[in-house]
Amino acid sequence: MEDLPSLKESFLRESSSVRALHDIQALRVKYLGKRGIVTEKLKALPTVDPAQRPAYGRAVNEIKQYIEAEIARIEAHLREEEYRKSLLSEALDVTLPGKYTPPGREHPIQHVLSEITDIFSSMGFEVGEGPEVELDYYNFEALNIPKNHPARDMQDTFYISDDVVLRTHTSPVQIRVMEMRPPPLKVIAPGKVYRCDADVSHTPMFHQVEGFMVDTDIAFSDLKGVLELFIHTMFSERTPVRFRPSFFPFTEPSAEVDIGCIFCSGNGCRVCKQSGWLEILGAGMIHPKVFEYVGYDPETFSGFAFGMGVERLTMLKYGIDDIRLFFENDLRFLRQF
Amino acid sequence: MRVPFTWLKEFVEIGVSPGEVADRLTMAGFEVEGVDSVEGEAIFDVSVTPNRPDCLSVLGIAREVAAITQMPLVVPPCRISGSLPDAGFSVDILDPDLCNRYAGRVISGVTVGTSPEWMKKRLEQCGIRSINNVVDVTNYVLLEMGHPLHAFDADRLAGKKVRVGTPATVRGRNEPIAVRTLDGVERSVPPDALLIWDAEKPIAVAGVMGGQESEVTSGTRTVFLESAYFESSSIRRTSRGLGLISESSYRFERGTDIEFLERALDRAAGLIAELAGGTVHDIVDAYPVRYVSHRVVVRPERLNRILGTDLSRDEMADILRRLQIPAEGDGDEIVVLPPPNRRDLKQMWDIAEEVARIYGYEKISTTIPRSPLSSGRSGKGARIIQQIRESLRRAGFSAAINYSFMNSTSLDALGIPPTDRRRRTIAISNPLSQDEGLLRTTVVPALIANLRLNLDRGMREVRLFEVARVFIDAGKTLPDEEWRLGGIWYKEKAPSLWREDAEGFYLVKGAIEMLFEELNVRGYDFRPCSETFLHAGRSADVVVSGSCVGYIGVLAPRVVAGLEIKKHRPEIVLFEIDLDRFLPAVPDSMRFSPLPKFPSVERDIAVIVDEQIPSSRIREIIASFPTHLIETVTLFDCFRGGSIPPGKKSLAFNIVYRSMERTLTEGEVEDLHERLVEHVLELTSGEIRR
């Protein structure tokens, strides 16, 4: 029995140097194989003194179980190690960039157009459309801007012929929609407009959103309410809004709408020309003359209309300082949005 | 308009700072765009809207300030009365509808010289150059009172006679007449333009500019001073026609005060006598068409409903009177008598604006309209276009926006034939430049220009799309406006981290196919196309539901050569879709198909066929095979070279067989597939690839 501790020691010594699965196999054969050391001990059991045999048998079996468990543990460990190694041999450089087509970007003007449209849609305004090449009648006459009227100076017009122009504003959509349908109406009309003017702050084509609402009891105070709600959604709840009297031939009373300068919080800066205010909208109550042109009774109906320049809003929103960037389509510009 | 603060204070007492006055004017509708300080004096730059010609003067602005600040307005009397020598001139208005009133005074024995410093300074502050004391007085009174005046050298007027009429009326001939104006330019004045004549000849273009011959010079001894009322649209027509805009025409075409003109005349005559000496003669005044005030009746209740205010009748009438607009309350109405300087006040709405702006827009409350519920959801077309934009962005294309202009040279560069629809262009009669003289009929030239710009700026990859209207002359008053989707693709052949070996054509085609798939558009087809500017062997018409909706293709090398792109054989792919034709093919709704209950069986077929046979032909052959057991056909390989003989290619398809009613047996599929392969080989003259 005195040889058993040394057997365990020798196993421990040998097993601690095992590094590979074939070593563990050899160890198993050496100790537990048909001619293994532990097997031989068990085979020799009958030769042991009967008085000591039970105790000796137990001791050998204990060692056998111990060695079996150890070998299984080491083998499992080695198999795990080997699996890991095989995975690592297939390792990728996970820091390499993935493969994808870089997504294209939306044009900033379109972003803002969509934003404006969404806000008014949520208030129940539907989207109306009209042609970009428009009759003088719709662009001017029916909007109370007769030929030889000084108000025509407010807009430099591209002419196709005496009676056909590139629309100078989206307001003709008002006339086209009102001619087709009776009130109540709640419509916005986004689109391209044209003026023959080109310099640092003007492009011959730009975008406007026209909006109007007509019903039996629409007041100037409603115009203020709707536009204030729009501005507070578009900018922020805290943006100051101011309505200033102005003149448009197709509205009366007319207003220009300013917001507190978003760059200097109204303290005065270069963008707001030290005034603290930025003009962003023209608006007013629809002129009774316009109602007469479309056959609405101005005694029964009233309504408001407004129009805004999308380029200006976009420039304010993103801090863009040159309007011409919008139409160059330089990808270094477009990719920023 | 420039308004010196000190001048303003001559007409109204002002107890607040210039900055405060500027703010209040702005909030009453006269935007002060800037306050200049010249030698310590504040000068306002006031923007006066076209409906308010009465405010194109210091006095006019003073009237507004008086109304806003509730201070009295002080207008100097400046009337000349008593017995004066006779003018010795007669005035004859031949076209009274174009000239409602013409008044004049003679000032004899004047000495023309320089103006005093105070007058020069004020003119200068308002941006007007000093000429001599007589002319300066007319300009001074124009700025002060807003009424344009003209001074003639009376000794140069033949027959002591002033006539007012058009060449057509005066000469009875419908021909233009030559007049040399003060600026030394000889102008051909149309027969319907109003002129001032002496007994023999035209001496001024009425309301626009005087004639050079009767100009006041240093030698002038007698002055004939004109103060008239000309009909506004006639002056505007003449001014535009001659391309001549003056301080006078600017005011006349907006409207002047037919009653007040007498006071301006007297003010100027008095000043001339004061500064240049001489004797003022009696007035000559022809006033054939009297001013009639058309009363406007306002119901305060209606006005309050339009504004959303709660003002009393008397509050409204008071505001109007502060603006010197006669208004009387009468029961539940207000009767307004617009004065001659306020011809813009025609109806209740005009009165509403006056009341609202002086009351203060900021005091009007904000309300939310009471109106029936309505849906703001956009229409089908707008929603699909939104989906198209999103799909193309996912495919890597960024959105471009180009001007709607083009020129015919860019159509020439594309080799668009003269009979092509895209040649039916609309021309702009006053384009900014000849390069932008036409409205575009295709978005391609602009996209090519965008590509060039981006290449010039060093981009190695360009993917752009645009959704815009194009304009086709259809022989009607207005052109056909059609929605187009266009795109351009370019990628430099350069080493890249991950291999991408598909041709650009297929990458762009893939983007289009993905778009169709996202929109559930089935039944589309790509067929050889004949666009002149595309590579004949690498372009296709896009056919949806049997009709051609556009094209996709590689830009033809000949066109590329003309673009002077500094790249070696660049591969540029273009596409353009006619959205008005395409959108109707997009289904509105989808139906569910039941999922199969029985297993499928897959088989492959690889055939070697002539290079000329398109893969779609083999698809068609398979589709035409008389069985309903084929579920899908997928092309998974297209191979050339190797063991494949030249001029041939190998195409391999995966075919999925399935029955909706039962499980197919191996033998059944084997037999079916064998017959299908034979069918394909027979119709393509191909052979099986082993």
Q: Can you describe what's shown?
A:
The complex is a heterodimer of chains A (337) and B (690). Chain A is built from twelve helices and nine strands. Chain A is α+β, with helices and mostly antiparallel strands. Chain A has two domains: 85 residues; 183 residues, 2-Layer Sandwich (BirA Bifunctional Protein, domain 2). In chain A, a hairpin with a 2-residue loop joins strand 6 and strand 7. The model of chain A has no long low-confidence stretch (mean pLDDT 92). Chain B is α+β, with helices and mostly antiparallel strands and 690 residues long. Chain B folds into five domains: 68 residues, 2-Layer Sandwich (Phenylalanyl-tRNA Synthetase, Chain B, domain 1), CATH 3.30.56; 197 residues, Phenylalanyl-trna Synthetase, Chain B, domain 3 (Phenylalanyl-tRNA Synthetase, Chain B, domain 3, 3-Layer(bba) Sandwich), CATH 3.50.40; 66 residues, 2-Layer Sandwich (Phenylalanyl-tRNA Synthetase, Chain B, domain 1), CATH 3.30.56.10; 206 residues, BirA Bifunctional Protein, domain 2, CATH 3.30.930.10; 88 residues, Alpha-Beta Plaits. In chain B, the strands form eight sheets. Chain B has a seven-stranded mixed beta sheet with strand order 19-22-23-27-26-25-24, with helices on both faces. In chain B, a hairpin with a 5-residue loop joins strand 24 and strand 25. Chain B starts with a strand and ends with a strand.
